[in-house]
Design brief:
Number of helices: 8
Order of helices and strands: HEHHEHHHHH
Oligomer: single chain
Radius of gyration: 16 Å
Strand order of the largest sheet: 1-2
Helix content: 55-70%
Length: 182
């Protein structure tokens, strides 16, 4: 979180559009759609801190959102040379993997990753990405970017009663630290 995914996605799309016209972007979670309801509830803290919710359960929220959007993804993949997503399946691996690193259980994380790969790509039949680019920065920069984001932008999916500018995952710097290590 706070690494500039949205900004870098837009810059990459603009550059590719200069070279090839057939470029489209997508973003997950698909906030505001019914398919993202449980993701929004998770991010608003309705299920506790991120590491308190079983990773198997949490991962299904994100996968279900993408699964509901799969026809749109497939349609765009059939039409465009490039479809760039600022978050996709790998985010599920990283964020859920943070739970296992926080517990110090790398074997359970490996087992979970195999299960999640099967869920996302075999069972849900989500399209496999051709390329994955990771954006990362130090924790202090992430925290600064998130605070700047909180000051600049209100997001509809965040419950105002939750002090409404950062979601529960963005506020949890311990969680952010472990996500960086996955």
């Amino acid at each position: 979180d706070g690494a500039g995914k949205k900004t870098q996605t837009a810059l990459l799309a603009d550059k590719l559009k200069e070279l090839w016209n057939a470029v489209e972007t997508i973003s997950f979670p698909s906030y505001g759609h019914r398919s993202a309801t449980f993701v929004e509830k998770l991010l608003n803290g309705e299920f506790g801190r991120p590491h308190e919710l079983d990773p198997y359960v949490a991962s299904t929220f994100y996968m279900t959102d993408r699964f509901a959007q799969r026809p749109m993804i497939e349609k765009k993949l059939a039409v465009y040379d490039y479809v760039i997503s600022d978050r996709y399946t790998m985010s599920n691996f990283i964020h859920r993997g943070a739970h296992y690193l926080e517990q110090g259980d790398e074997n359970a994380m490996r087992d979970f990753f195999w299960w999640l790969y099967d869920l996302e790509f075999q069972r849900a039949k989500l399209p496999l990405p051709d390329k994955i680019l990771f954006l990362s920065m130090g924790l202090k920069n992430i925290e600064a970017n998130l605070q700047r984001k909180a000051a600049e932008e209100k997001r509809a999916y965040i419950d105002p009663a939750n002090q409404g500018t950062l979601d529960i995952v963005e506020k949890d710097m311990d969680y952010q630290k472990y996500s960086l290590l996955v």
